[in-house]
Design a protein that fits this description.
The protein is of the alpha/beta class. The chain is built from six helices and five strands, in the order βαβααβαβαβα. Strands 2-1-3-4-5 form a five-stranded parallel β-sheet, sandwiched between helices. Helix 1 runs parallel beside helix 6 (189-215). It starts with a strand and ends with a helix. It catalyses: N,N-dimethyl-1,4-phenylenediamine + anthranilate + 2 NAD(+) = 2-(4-dimethylaminophenyl)diazenylbenzoate + 2 NADH + 2 H(+); 2 a quinone + NADH + H(+) = 2 a 1,4-benzosemiquinone + NAD(+). Belongs to the azoreductase type 1 family. Keywords: Flavoprotein, FMN, NAD, Oxidoreductase. Its EC number is 1.6.5.-, 1.7.1.17.
Length: 216
């Protein structure tokens, strides 16, 4: 029985482009793998607190040597890290906010990046696990567009998830999501619809393929 760790971080609820795609991905995953398990975290509804000094430095102390205060401070880190380590696959909704990721997602990352355990070690404990990142954005940052080079979501997540945690990273990128609601972008609606449809198709195919691979 495979486990999918599903994380959403958009603050837009039912109006979220990234949530629409992650929900479709999860729906296909569950239909293809009805005996599977999903661990879900909504970082907008229940934000992970930003790591403080006590929790941060507790990570550099051997578990048996931690003080009671350090153990208490590190308990959430341990819970989140264990969810990552116990998952067979990870799905992350990561909309672009001000050219980067939501601070709630950064807070989660700061707690699961554990030096000597999940990162900066010869054998990261989550290495090799497939992670699908749905990163939506209101405009386009593709080559040749005015915003080319201003996407700090995909490069950052590719580095921290791939190089840092050793995960097998894949992206789905629905873009131009503001076109239907911004009159100045009305002429871009056909491109938005094309991007939306492609993202949905990728979610379906990638979820089905991964479920089949993990249950083979």
């Amino acid at each position: 029985m495979a486990t999918l760790l599903h994380i959403d971080s958009s603050l837009n609820g039912d109006n979220s482009a990234s949530r629409a795609v992650t929900a479709l991905y999860r729906e296909v995953w569950e239909s293809e793998h009805p005996d599977g398990k999903v661990v879900y975290r909504d970082l907008a509804a229940e934000p992970v607190p930003h790591v403080d000094a006590l929790a941060y430095y507790a990570g550099y102390v051997a578990p048996q040597d931690r003080t009671p205060e350090q153990r208490e401070a590190y308990a959430l880190n341990e819970e989140l890290i264990s969810e990552l380590e116990n998952a067979d696959a990870i799905l992350i909704g990561a909309p672009m906010y001000n050219y980067s990721i939501p601070s709630t997602l950064k807070a989660w990352l700061d707690r699961v990046i554990a030096v000597g355990r999940t990162s900066m070690t010869a054998n990261p404990t989550a290495a090799g696990k497939p992670v699908t990142v749905v990163t939506s954005r209101g405009g386009s940052y593709a080559p040749g567009t005015p915003q080319e080079g201003n996407d700090f979501v995909e490069p950052y997540l590719r580095h921290v998830l791939g190089n840092g945690l050793g995960l097998d990273v894949d992206f789905i990128v629905p873009e131009l999501t503001l076109a239907p609601s911004n009159p100045a972008m009305a002429e871009l609606i056909p491109l938005f619809e094309k991007s939306r449809d492609l993202a949905q198709e990728q979610a379906r195919s990638k979820a089905a393929a991964l479920a089949a691979r993990l249950t083979a």
